[in-house]
Amino acid sequence: MRFLKGHGTENDFVILPDHDAELDVSATLVARICDRRTGLGADGVLRVVRTKRSHEVAGQASAAEWFMDYRNADGSVAEMCGNGVRVFARYLVDAGLTGSSEFAIATRGGLRQVRMEPNGDVTVDMGKPTVLGESTAHVGGVDYPGIRVDMGNPHLACAIGDPVVQLDLTHQPGFDIGVFPSGVNIELFNPVGVSRAVMRVFERGSGETRSCGTGAVATAVAAAALSGDTTGTWTVEVLGGTLTVILDEDTSYLSGPAVIVASGELMLAE
Ligand SMILES: N[C@@H](CCC[C@H](N)C(=O)O)C(=O)O
User: Fold this and answer.
1) Which residue segment(s) compose the domain that 118 sits in?
2) What is the pTM of this model?
3) Which residues constitute the catalytic centre (predicted)?
């Protein structure tokens, strides 16, 4: 099985080209691939499939040639991945699978328009974040109130007074399962200066990761809300680098680096 490896601000992915949907990529296989000791190691898998060959998103085939079939490290399926879609775009361009610098990618969360920037960054139109109300995350014996944000996938973004560097995120933070029956990605952030936040994230299905694109947008939404804003340009510092989020009236944009670092032949099989 041919693979590539890439990352966006150190949110890392194994890319599996499966253009005609011929592979049987089970949850077990994904978990084995993502294992950092016995597999390749990654936060998730991006399976590259022609949209028209996928029964899940065939309705998007007229607008997007390629479908990002995203899986978390534990093998679970997610609707969207902001860094993943940027790395996916980088793969399509590098592999010559698109001739354009602006194109759409099909995801379970809907179409995402991407743009390759002259400086090598990749920008994605993430759609309009939906604020759903409030909830609470529980970390290290402390309850942190936050804002529920739907980015196609579920988020709980919490501004906290304690420095995020001090948090122990080796375990799943507590959350209200009644509010998030399918689980949730939890962002904890410190607002710093003007339109800047330092964020850590515990991702549903992957644990703590060094970056999360949908989480960065959710954090920008929650940080803006602290000052009563719904628009603006935000810098979100994550463990793996820096992401830029633009919130406007109608949508949101996520920008940052996305690179392919390796390719090869995978010997793992079912
Ligand atoms: N790292 C991603 C989010 C991946 C999906 C998430 N773990 C979920 O289950 O919703 C990003 O960059 O957005």
Assistant:
1) 2-124+257-265
2) 0.97
3) 81, 212
